[in-house]
Design brief:
single chain, alpha+beta, six-stranded mixed β-sheet, two-stranded antiparallel ribbon, 25% strand, globular
Length: 179
Amino acid sequence: MEIGGLSIYLTILFIQKSASFSGNVHYVQTVTHCPQDKTEWNIRSAAINCNVTSEYMCLANEKRTSLLEICITISGTSISPGLCAVLNKSNVDLHSCDHFTDGCPDRFYNLKEMFLYPKCAAIGDGCFLAEPSCVRPTSNSQMSTMTKQSTEMQTESKKAGAHSITLCYVSISDQFSKR
């Protein structure tokens, strides 16, 4: 009986150490930050209608350029120590964080506990901020410049979005007026 138990344990350990897991992702939204505690986690989960058959996750995209909230139909998945989750299309890839300066998960954790490891969702310029190789601003003036540039890009993006909606509307209107 001990051998069977060991076999099951090793099988579970192998599955949890795999490089990714997949499920049915049925909601994706870009966000500026992930929940920092269980209360925030539960509020966001309810707000996007993740229910008993799906799990809420907030994680970086595969390029580490944005944070995403998702609902994924998957159950009983825990993540091994030394790994952070990232979304790669419809798969959740597991990224080694053993080289992080701090904040790498040091125990098994389930999807509902991801908020305990905020360094797994702290990203910038295509990398995790806890990675020693990740370039971060070194002064307040650099941070101020980056914040200003980010605000300008968001403003331009919003303007472009408004124009494309207007153009789409005009195009549709022209189609109907010609009939």
